[in-house]
Write a structure and sequence with these properties.
With 209 residues, the chain is of the alpha+beta class. 35% of the residues lie in helices and 28% in strands.
């Protein structure tokens, strides 16, 4: 699957916001603080002009981000049974993805992906290996404003039964050649092709962008 670049305005707004956030974290000069706050306002103005969210709300969101600006982390569990991949139907867009979500502070990566799979699908798993680490904003549709990395883990089933959750409408196992409509910013064909390659070759090294 060819990479889909983010719109140029979004690339600019992300970079300006990151410069502002990092600058506000380290500056001890009031003059510089005013300049970094202005950069945050410019990022908010750009983003508001291309969205339905107001400049004021964007600015409030930007200023609530503490510390040095770094990417967020999205984890996904690749669970394969009888050559079929576990997918969940997202409530937000009614499309399908590997179970997962944003990483929580304080959790170990392997524990985090196992919990996400259980919460969203009802299937108990343990993480076996990392399939790939991806730039989530350059594979399919960008996830959202903030830059993010996606980590996909190959998982082994230990128990549980399929069920929906408060975040998912349904869960099921699907043939790799007969997939339902995908929620592309969560899971796309590139991710699933790599999953299938690892299932067929357990010695395959992790993919990365």
């Amino acid at each position: 699957m060819a990479e889909t670049p983010s719109p140029q305005w979004l690339e600019w707004a992300r970079e300006i916001q990151a410069l502002s956030q990092t600058g506000l974290t380290f500056t001890q000069n009031e003059y510089e603080r005013e300049r970094y706050q202005r950069l945050s306002e410019i990022a908010a103005e750009i983003t508001a002009s291309y969205s339905e969210i107001s400049k004021e709300n964007w600015q409030k969101n930007f200023l609530s981000q503490p510390g040095y600006a770094t990417p967020k982390i999205d984890v996904r569990g690749a669970v394969v049974r009888e050559n079929k991949i576990l997918l969940v139907q997202e409530r937000t867009d009614q499309r399908w993805s590997m179970p997962g979500g944003w990483a929580d502070v304080g959790d170990r990566p392997a524990e985090m992906v196992a919990r996400e799979v259980w919460e969203e699908s009802g299937i108990r798993v343990v993480a076996q290996k990392v399939i790939g680490v991806y730039d989530a904003n350059r594979t399919g549709r960008p996830m959202e404003f903030y830059h993010a990395f996606k980590i996909v883990f190959l998982c082994e089933i230990t128990g549980g039964e399929l069920r929906p959750s408060n975040e998912t409408l349904a869960a099921g196992f699907f043939d790799f050649e007969n997939l339902p409509p995908l929620s592309l910013h969560r899971t796309n064909e590139k991710h699933l092709a790599e999953v299938l390659a690892h299932v067929r070759d357990h010695t395959r090294p992790a993919a990365f962008d």
